[in-house]
Write a structure and sequence with these properties.
about 375 residues; three-stranded mixed β-sheet
Length: about 375
Amino acid sequence: MAGSRQIERAAAAWLARRDGGDWSPGDQAQLDAWLAQSTAHRVAWLRLQAAWNQSDRLKALAAGVAPGEVPARGAWSASPYAPRGEAQASGQDDRATAEPLDPEEDARAVVAQASAAAPATAVTTAPLIGLTFTPRATPRSPRTARYAAAAAIALVAMSLLWGWQRYGVVEHRSYRTAIGALDTIGLADGSRATLSSDSRIDVALSRAQRHVALEHGEAFFDVAKDPGRPFAVDAGARRVIAVGTRFSVRRDGPDLRVVVTEGTVRLESEPVDGRTQPTTLLPAGSIALAGANGVLVRSGSIEDAERFVDWRNGYLVFRDTALSAAVAEFNRYNTRRLVIGDAAVGELRVGGNFRWSNAEVFVGLLEQAMPVRAERLPDRIVLHSR
């Protein structure tokens, strides 16, 4: 019985004879008869013929023959670099002839040759349907990997630097004063804040922003110039923003008073019922009162504005002020409170400069110059009409 190797040798011999020249119709008839003997013959023939066609180009290059032409018989031989055994086998193959093969061995050969021949024939004849080709990943060279790592490190460093510059905390502290005490604080950005009696501020400064929250009381701000970091004072639903200027913000519950003595500040309000509130610019000399009914601005001289912040020097300045309002101012700085005993005494008008730390002197002047009677108690002084 002829094995697969014998069939291949026979097919190779037929192929060599056909391409070797002098191929007669009789030779073709013999080849056809051999192919008709067994499917294994046809498979071996087709596989070798396909491989032969694929190697035409190599054969042409090696023999100096143009592609598509088969070298003349004898022009090709075993490679001098081929293993000795293969060279000998090749010579034997050339001398092989077509021989009848055993049918049983043919059957086994068909199975073996069909599986072996399938890839070769598929390359040349079967369409590539349903196949998906995935691009082969290009391996990174060590240099490329180093460049990528360096770029990633640089990116991370730049991100950290940007975050440090923008969000790095420079100062985050709270300051407060007791009743009857003032305090001037130097902030990290070079600004200064003077807290009035019974006041508190929360300071949050970063390299990109400056925020101060006025919790209660009053504070005067001497802001260091820094256009890149606006200085914002939040007081309830309102915000006062300055770049470099001097102003005070006073918070009495929901009401706000802003006094500007230098430069310009911007007063912003939170939306009310979903409606955006207008922004108010306050130049030096402005006194703004913001409440539930909106913002009222009074423009005057800087000297007049300075009068409202003379508390920093220890004085309260009244100009035709109702006694009830003057009493309220004194009570901001003293624990022994002044009390209006009746409506008539509260409507009296007063004027002048008074030390806020000496309410007793103020009451004595009222008794001397106005129809006022003082009832002195341990914790308060009640003012009555006389």
